[in-house]
Write a structure and sequence with these properties.
2 domains, binds zinc ion, Urease, subunit C, domain 1, single chain, alpha/beta, 16% strand, TIM Barrel, 495 residues, 20 helices, four-stranded parallel beta sheet
């Protein structure tokens, strides 16, 4: 049933294929990189059936398909699907909900082509899982629906993990304790009771994790982290503000740690000094190790912000991805909408130290890796300059550049994120019985991490999408962007 829906909605242009074989595949003669071991297994026949890896066996001279469709894996490499542990997905509902008179009336096509382009962009890069770190309420409702549509096979895309962002009112922390606290609500809690209620409500609505944000006071932050832990919801977010009467202090935060910290520069903020020394790196690393938190460094995010600060323009996207910067995104990445190119952004105190912050984040990430802190690959896409999918490949190179081996980068991009967001659903390694989220590569990623971008095709939940099919779908969707562009141009001309 799933296969039928999938074929009609996603592969409408594909030649007819027997439903009996649609979910049954045999990759022959492939080199398997299971990733949860140092081992590499050359010459394997890998059977994918009903969404799972059914078997991995020594390659037979004449493989017997037994009803499966054969994929020639000779000369190719099979690795776990990648996960972007930090994205912000712009659903159509979220775009409409922005306070922008043009966007409020923008007529998106009814075939959800905008969202399909996002999902396919991830797959094009081998990203079979993506965690959304919170947006607005309208966007969240649409995103939970999108997650369920993907899970049910109605749309082809990565498995989505949807986070609920919980933050207090910024003024409450900034002005306390002289001003009275604003009325506390679960949407902007300033009491532990409302913080806990916000987490329970998120669990009830089916969110996959909680994103605490930085303007929570000490006790509300603690209630959120404790409640999430009791409900077995992971927490990944920003560290609370420091240094006010109702704010957390560093020791308190690490005594009540989140499962994962959303950016390495969050930790830099916690160094509480303008000159970060080796001792600061050691102290912060030690605090993270003791707290048993993971970290998503998002080095490419900071690097891209620094590039914009230096060069006064959004950086070019990697070659081959240009047509995937849709007109709406192009508009958001240019002034006046790109805040990283604004005068206000540049005028913030301490901005001249921004380039140094990237260098520090790299040093800190390296220290965390040396102490075996579980790192994950995250990008903050769709921030200016960072496309869905392409940015994950960029972050893998960033982690390799600080000294991590290709195998360690692959682990950060797959196993570590699975452990963070879906711990009970298996390891995500290329092993019998695991969910078949896999990437088939044309070249060895252990020889050169750049080869992790040489994608022959992906399996998402056991369904095979060759890169040729993904590219053809994306080309078709990009053609529809012309309509979007003319609407935007006309609307901007009127104003
Ligand atoms: Zn973010």
């Amino acid at each position: 049933m799933l296969a039928t829906v999938f074929l009609t909605t996603v592969l409408a242009a594909a030649p007819a294929r027997s439903p009996a074989t649609a979910d049954d595949w045999l990759i022959t003669g492939v080199t398997v990189i299971p990733t949860d071991t140092e081992e590499v297994w050359p010459q394997r026949d890998v059977r994918i059936r009903d969404g799972r890896i059914a078997s991995i066996e020594a390659a037979a001279p004449k493989p017997r398909a037994r009803g499966a469709t054969i994929i020639d894996g000779r000369g190719k490499f099979l690795v776990p699907g990648f996960v972007d542990a930090h994205v912000h997905i712009a659903t159509e509902a979220a775009i409409h909900a922005r306070r922008d008179p043009v966007l409020a009336t923008l007529p998106f096509p009814e075939d959800r082509s905008y969202e399909r382009q996002i999902l396919l962009s991830f797959l094009k890069a081998g990203v079979t899982g993506a965690a959304n770190l919170g947006g607005n309420a309208a966007g969240d409702a649409a995103l939970l629906q999108l997650r369920d549509d993907v899970a049910a096979g109605r749309l082809a895309g990565p498995q989505l993990f949807v986070g609920k962002r919980i933050d207090g009112p910024r003024d409450h922390v900034a002005d306390a304790p002289d001003t009275p606290a604003p009325a506390s609500t679960p949407e902007a809690p300033t009491t532990p009771a409302d913080g806990a209620a916000a987490v329970r409500e998120a669990a009830r609505r089916g969110y996959d994790f909680i994103k605490p944000y930085q303007f929570l006071d000490r006790e509300t932050y603690r209630a959120i982290v404790d409640t999430a832990q009791a409900l077995r919801l992971p927490t990944t977010g920003h560290l609370p503000e420091l240094d006010c009467a109702i704010c957390a202090d560093r020791a308190f935060v690490f005594a009540h740690p989140m499962t994962n910290i959303a950016h390495a520069e969050e930790l830099a903020r916690y160094a509480q000094t303008s000159d970060l020394s080796a001792a600061d790196v050691d102290a912060l690393t030690e605090a993270v190790v003791r707290a048993r938190s993971g970290v998503t460094p998002t080095l490419i995010t900071l690097k891209t912000i620094v590039l914009q600060y230096r060069e006064h323009q959004a950086p070019a996207v990697p070659a081959g991805w240009e047509t995937l910067v849709d007109p709406l995104t192009q508009r958001d990445w240019q002034p006046p909408r790109n805040r990283y190119l604004s005068a206000e952004f540049r005028a913030q105190p301490g901005m001249e130290r921004l380039p140094a912050a990237y260098d520090f984040a790299r040093v800190l990430t390296r220290a965390l890796w040396k102490r075996a802190v579980p790192l994950t690959t995250g990008t903050d896409a769709l921030m200016p300059g960072l496309l869905y999918g392409a940015s994950l490949q960029q972050e893998m190179r960033e982690l390799h550049a600080i000294g991590m081996s290709p195998l360690e980068v692959l682990r950060a991009a797959s196993l570590n994120a699975r452990r963070l967001f879906a711990a009970s659903a298996g390891s995500g390694a290329v092993r019998r019985g695991q969910r078949a989220d896999l990437v088939l590569l044309d070249a060895d990623p252990l020889a050169d991490i750049d080869n992790a971008a040489r994608i022959a095709g992906v399996f998402v939940a056991g369904r095979w999408l060759p890169i040729t099919r993904i590219d053809a779908e994306l080309a078709d969707l990009a053609a529809r962007n012309a309509t979007l562009e003319s609407v935007l141009r006309a609307a901007d001309a009127v104003r």
